[in-house]
Amino acid sequence: MKNLSLTVKIWLAMSLVSLLLYMVVFLLMPTFLHNFFTDTLMEPHGPPPPKNIAKEPFNSSLNFRDLYIRNFIILEDGTTLPASAQQVFPASLIQEIRKNAVSQQSARQMYESQSNGIHIRYSIRKELAYGHPLYQVTFLRKSEEDRFVRTFLFNILPYTSIALIISWFASLLFVRYLTRPLVQMQQHVKRIASRNWHEPLIVKRGDEIGKLAGSIESMRQQLVLQDEAQQSMLQNISHELKTPVMVIRSYAQAMQDGVYPKGDLAGSIQVIKEEGERLEKLVKQLLYLTRLDYLATRSPVYNDVPLNKLIENIAQRLTPQRPEINWRLELQQVSLEGDEDTLRVMIENLLDNHLRYALSKIEVALAIDREKKKITVTIWNDGSKIESLVLDQIQQPFQKGRNGKFGLGLAIVQRIVKLYHGQFTINNERNGVASTVHIPLK
């Protein structure tokens, strides 16, 4: 069963259910028919007996509902109406009927009896006529009842069998209707697994299968975007790596030929050293981006980090790079539960970016909003405003500003902020540029 297709499994299940219903109906049908006969015998048949019924011949069979039902009337003293009924039925049966009739408490009751090897069922209905009790007896031979049941079942058997076979074919068509989009989705997922994800999946249904198809299509679109971003990133990485490698190779080849591009050996070696350091920094940033992607899939261990002290220490360390810049720090005492290494990299990249573009001053503010349960870090510099086209894409990898190096610093900041489920924005404010980071408190 495990290796069967879903179509076959559903069809077998529906066929089994229909077959079980078919068998249950045939097993219960005799009981229903016997109950029908019982109800028939318990019902009154025809008008009250006429006054001269004693002189009329006994009608041995009454056709009611296409069944041959016998009925007569027996009085309290054992007299039958018509009197010829005593000649048709055995005396022992008449005495049994009279005895049951006299002792009967209810107005109507069912009995079964054996007479001369014949199994019969009869009902006695108690009535009053001219102030005296009389008992109307209605009975049917069990053999006639069984014969009718067999005939009925034999007649309906071909029709029910045809209906069962038709239901199996109908269920097969219905199952194919249900599983067709599943097969389509299976083939589509196989193509996606083979990185052939440019063909859209279209399933026009509003049920659960349609929702599943919509989820697969959404996954396909995300994979397409991720693939495009990956291809673009690989191209940018190749471009950024190519420049320092070409400089190092050309300088090394020239020096090997006895030519010093910078005029002397020390100057040429210094250029190679600077390009090597630039290449090393680029590789480190790329590796850190990969590490952040790894951390996003894990549950990191966090500790309390005094964010105000961390910002103050980093600012003091960066100040000597541009002593002419005036720093203004407004830091509340804030502790954040997180990873100190990622928080340090985030603050370093932000402050280094603002320090590169500042003209004369940098303002750093750290505040905590306990009502909204969030921490806000705002950094502003008085440098030139960022162009609107650049501002919309500046957080993407390898998107550089006017004096940018690799275009990875702000992309790393964005990834770190996402690790803390926060928000990172860059805007032109107060004739300068402001970076704002919102991190929710746990």
Task: Spell out the blueprint of helices and strands.
Layout: H1 6-42, E1 62-64, E2 67-75, E3 80-81, H2 85-88, H3 91-103, E4 108-115, E5 118-129, E6 132-141, H4 142-193, H5 208-256, H6 265-295, E7 303-306, H7 307-318, E8 326-331, E9 335-338, H8 340-357, E10 361-369, E11 374-381, H9 388-393, H10 409-419, E12 423-429, E13 432-440
Parallel strand pairs: 8-10
Antiparallel strand pairs: 1-2, 2-3, 2-6, 4-5, 5-6, 7-9, 10-11, 11-13, 12-13
Subcellular location: Cell membrane
InterPro entries: HAMP_dom (IPR003660), HATPase_C_sf (IPR036890), HATPase_dom (IPR003594), His_kinase_dom (IPR005467), HisK_dim/P_dom (IPR003661), HisK_dim/P_sf (IPR036097), HssS/ArlS-like (IPR050398)
Domain HAMP: 176-228
